[in-house]
Amino acid sequence: MSLPNFIVSGFPKCGSTALHYYLNEHPEIYMPKQKELHFFTNHILGKQNQGPGDKEIKKTQIKSLKAYKTCYQNVTNEVAIGDASPSYINYPTEFEKIKKELDNPKIIILLRDPIKRAYSNYLHLVRAHRETLSFYDGLMEETKRKELSYSDFWYYTFNSLYFDKIKAAQAVFDDVLIITQEELSSNTESTISNIFQFLGVDSTFEPSNLDKRYNPGGSYESNFITKMIFKENKLKTAIKKNTPVPKWAKHLKQNIIKKFKVDTPEIDNKTEDYLIEVFKADVNNLKTLNVDVSKWNFKYFQ
Fold first, then answer.
1. Least C-beta-crowded within 10 Å: which of 66, 80, 105, 226?
2. pTM (two decimals)
3. Domains and CATH numbers, the chain
4. Do the bridges between strand 219-220 and strand 106-111 make them parallel or antiparallel, or are there none, so unpaired?
C-alpha cells in the first residue's frame, strides 16, 4: 500500500484547505478525502484537550497506523500522494519519524503574515463560539492556556513563529518548498504551477477551481444559521469522519454564509504594537531564507 510522498504543512489558518482542494484536482496527485489527518502529531495533540470545544475537535484526528493507511487505500497510479496536516510543522521533534516512516517526503510549508494569521486564528475561534475574550486578552492568556493543556490552536503567537521550525525542517528533509498565503492568493495560477513542478507532476495542468476561495474567514452575524455552520458539534464531527465534505458542499456553505458577513474589526494599535515586537525578529530572519515577506506589515522592518 502506498503512503504519502509529500506533506503539506503550514501554520493553522494559512490556507491549507484551499491548497488541499487545488492539489486534489490534479489527476496525478492523490489527496485523502479527509483533510488534516494529524497522524504523526496526534500523540501530542491528543493531550491538548482542555479548552472549550477541544475534545470534539480531537475526534477527527487519525490515531492509528491502520486508520492512517486506510486513508490511502484507494491510491492507484498517482505520482504524488499527499497529507495536508498543519500541525506537523509546529513539532520539529517529529520530523525524523516522519522522514523515516514516509521515506523522506517532499515538504510544502505555507506561511502568512504572522499578525494576520494570528488574528484569523482568533476569529475562527470566535466564530465557533469558543473564544470569548478580546484578541489582546486572548494573547495575554496564551501561556496560561498552554499550562492548562488547551489545544495548540489557542496559541496565537506560537502558531505564527516560523523561522526556527522551518530551519529544523530544512535540516531534516531534502526537499522543502516555502510559499506564502499572499503568493497563493494574488498569483494563484503561477504558484500552483510551481507546486506541481516541485511535486514532479504536470505543471501545465490548471485546476478548474482556482477561482474558488475556501474558508474565507472574517466576522459574521451570530444567528441560528451561522451557529449551525461554525460551532462544533457531534453531527459535524460525524460528517467529517465518515462523509468528508465534497467541494460542492463547501461552495454552497460559502454562498450561504457570505449573506451574514459583517465588517471585521480592525486590530487596535496596542495589540498590533505588541505583536510587531513579538514577530519582528522572526520575520526578518525569514528574509535570509528568501521568503517573500514584501507584502507583510511594513512595521516589522522599521
1. 66
2. 0.90
3. 6-301 (3.40.50.300)
4. unpaired
